[in-house]
Amino acid sequence: MYKIPFVKKLITYVIAGLVIGESTFRFCATYLRTWLPIRQLSIIPLLLVIAAIIYVFIWQARKTNKPTTLAFWQGLIRYGVAFDLAEFGWSKICHQQLVMPLYQLDLPYRSLTPPQLFWTFYSHSYLFGCIIGGLQIVGAMLLLFHRTRLVGVFVLLPILANILLMDIFYQIGDSVVVHASIMMSGVLYFLFIEFDRLKEFFFVAKSNLPVMHLPKLLKMAIRLSIIYIPLLFIAMHDGPNKYPQLTGKYKVRHLRVDQQDLDRVNCADSALTIVYFDIRNSCVFEFNAQQRRWYGKYTKDNDHLKISWYTPGDKPVFNGIIIPADAGRLMLRGSLGTDSMSIILQKMDPGS
Q1: How many CB atoms lie within 10 A of CB 98?
Q2: What is the three-class DSSP state of 340?
Q3: Rounded Cα–Cα distance for residues 223 and 211 (Å)
């Protein structure tokens, strides 16, 4: 009789307890929290894991190795993962997930937290959410059938890996990261138990594709070319931030036009207040409000500066010089069309 190793039993039961417990907890917390206190629901995963571990030792003490018992617990893992991911998939399709409140969409970009940025981005396209949700549902169904179980693993694994990484780096929440990690462990379990089959398929079985007979060194050079050729051209190409010492957001400290000082309070519509020197030689002049901006491109030759505007396209070109000063200050002197200008700029902290 085939003897099931104790470690395999333990791993299977612990993962089953975690998957079923976490799936049950999330489902109840989402749909039944009106009737069941969340504090009591949080104990469900712990109780199921403890029960699973206790059963492992009971099964080991009985010295029975029924494959059907192991298959039952593996079935619990499959169903728990499939149910959880299918519920997530249907939530996306039914507008229960990837939705944003309207007031939040009007907030400035820099005021959004990482989780808000995440949800704002992914809520932009409903069709994209439906595709992801559909893949979750299809992968969940494939996981439940014996013949398509491995296909379901390959469908769900990249989806879960992507979700887990986004949960971590967008700081969605510790509980969300734990949940995604548990579901990932359930999928990885079925990947590892098929290790021999995968090893045979990927590394032992012979390929039916024709082989080019080239010298080994030449083959290796061609394969490595995907690394060194892009890096070589990237190193030779100018980056987006050609003038990092200039790049930044600047506040206008003093503005003089045609030998006259302009008061930013009394000239609310026409006074220049903010200047951006940005990546890819972009330049923006802001006149007291984001709705009143000029967008252009600048060219710099030593201390000479030229700014041409493309939005609005009828604005005059700025020609002048740029003089760096101390404490993050810049001075612009030149002409904007027929007007002479002198501007003192103070660099602002990022995000201010």
Answers
A1: 22
A2: strand
A3: 15
Top CATH class, 248-347: mainly beta
- pLDDT, tens digit (0-9, with 9 covering 90-100), for 115-127: 999 998 888 899 9
| Listed residue (200, 74, 65, 203) closest to 149, CA to CA | 74
Whole-number Å distance between alpha carbons of 333 and 252: 13
The tokens 């595709």 sit on which residue?
131
Question: DSSP class of residue 209?
Answer: S
Residue spans of the domains in the chain: they are 6-204, 248-347
DSSP 207: P
What are the φ and ψ backbone dihedral angles of 66, each rounded to 5 degrees? -75, 120
| pLDDT at residue 352 greater than cutoff 80 | no
Nearest-CA neighbor of 178 among 64, 20, 22? 22
Bridge partners of 305, per DSSP, are: 300, 320
Q: State the pTM of this model.
A: 0.82
261-289 pLDDT, tens per residue? 776 545 555 688 999 999 999 999 999 88
CA distance 18 to 20: 6
Instruction: Tell me phi and psi for residue 80, to 5 degrees.
Output: -60, -45
The residue behind tokens 């940005």 is 278
pLDDT class of 31 with cuts at 50, 70, 90: confident
* Segment 167-195 mean pLDDT: 93
Could you tell me where the beta strands, DSSP code E, fall in 60-121?
none
